[in-house]
């Protein structure tokens, strides 16, 4: 293991190890925490990696503790990588004033507006810097050619958009209760207005999963995508998620392979995430193994 | 459902429902929170119940969120009942001064010393009052003739002692990192000294799993018991748990059916509990189904 990461904890769980890591990021100009679950199979051979992007307010700890991905990842032989949701400690004015903007709410984009653009470069961090660092440090355990991505809520937005923006980077994508059309919902309007500027609608569209389907994909093209949304999810019901808009774009574009499931009564919490974690691991495993 | 319980939340998870309940307890003279997981099978027929007793500082929420008993309980068709770890709000002097005594640390005994004996009657609460209330309120969903018990740390002590003190009440017992010989460890000495009095050693022995094996069981008798302990558990290594003393009592008494497993590297946390939750559900299911 290279020395780019500090290992803060090594925890035995589900037959493998959960590593709590920290490193310095050039993309965000801050230290970044990241968790890595190594399944038992990683002792014998290189394993593929499923990246889990967390939602608003979360750190790498929440899903590591409550998401239940490790049970299925252990059986399938997948590593799970949990990046943080934003830079922390950048000390920008207003950074901690909202739970849905700034710290804990990086939206997996590269900010272009002041004062955010110096630190809030989560897209570069997640798609370039972190993979390079983690596949360098764990070259003996992780197979950098087999990577999939998933996420929850804001992290579901991140998974969908980073997949669509980076053809070939990930073998599959899935999302739990994702923000599907941020340009059209209050969370997205606030975040994109802040990180890009209120008038920069072309940049908004460039990081909006629904718009990206229309802009990037063609009829008959395959999008290996599983989405679960709970019908008891208060944010779904408040129209923050808008999965129907994403489905409409998929249908009107003629894209194939997308499955969107509406799960009766489930809410937005980790009780929902953990209930379907196995399905999302198995979805990724179909493309990774 | 009878009106003895107030339902604070109903959460869809793993195909079933987690109910966050509250009721007034005569045993503790306080309101008591309790969680109940109902598997999907409980819609069609009465299901057996596995009681999970939590460890020091915990509420019914910790294991409900991080223990992942629901994944296996859903498949097996078991309900899981999570009592709290002590009365709360009794407002006794010193009740909140320690994390290992008083609030969050009731040790599943009936206190006999002042000022604790008015409220700290968790043994009566868990073995009499709560079952009567829950099987009354959920008479159409729960089978009161099929109950097993398990727990973690202080709750493992509770599971082992309540099983041994109440022949016929539970069909099986298991424990994760249990306090096995509280009379001989700092946690137990503090708790029993407080709840019973420093000199009341016969009462100490009457709530000590290792002593109960010697006092209650005979050679050849069957104790349907599974115990897991992590070798990286700091409390195990500090000799708070003393599973070897329990094993010695089992061996010297000639009791059969006890399996104690030492799990390499695992710690005392929910990362450990969740890793073996399925095994403990399946252990109970062998006797309940």
UniProtKB/TrEMBL annotation, chains A, B:
Q: Which GO terms describe its molecular function?
A: carboxylic ester hydrolase activity; S-formylglutathione hydrolase activity
Q: Which UniProt keywords apply?
A: Cytoplasm, Hydrolase, Serine esterase
Q: Which SUPFAM superfamilies match?
A: alpha/beta-Hydrolases
Q: Which domain of life is it from?
A: Eukaryota
User: Where's it found, cell-wise?
Assistant: Cytoplasm
What are the GO cellular component annotations? cytosol
Pfam name, any one: Esterase
Asked whether the keyword Repressor is assigned, the reply is no
**Functional description taken from the UniProt entry:** Serine hydrolase involved in the detoxification of formaldehyde.
Name of the protein in question: S-formylglutathione hydrolase
Species of origin? Apiospora kogelbergensis
Q: What is the lineage of its organism?
A: Eukaryota, Fungi, Dikarya, Ascomycota, Pezizomycotina
